[in-house]
Amino acid sequence: xxxxxxxxxxxxxxxxxxxxxxxQAILNREKQKQKKERTRRLIQCGEVVEKYxxxxxxEPTEFEVFLQLFFEVKNIxxxxxxxxxxxxx
Length: 89
Known about the structure:
The protein has two helices and no strands. It is mainly α and 89 residues long. The protein has two domains: 55 residues; 32 residues.
C-alpha cells in the first residue's frame, strides 16, 4: 500500500484514468450497438420500399429523384382533392 501522500495521489490518478478508459469503452460499445441497430432498420425499410414500389437495383440518387417525384404527385393529388371539395365537385 502506498505510504506517502504523493504515492496515494498517484494511485488515485491511475485509478481515475482506468475508470475513464472503461467508461469510454462502454460508451463506444453502446454507440456501435446503436449504429448497427440503425443500419438494420434502414436495410429493413429499404426492403419494404423495394417490395411495395417494385423497384430494385436502383442507385441512391435515382431513388431520391423517384421519391421527390412521388411526393410531388401525391401533393398535387392532395391539393386537387382540397380544391374539388371547396368547389363541391
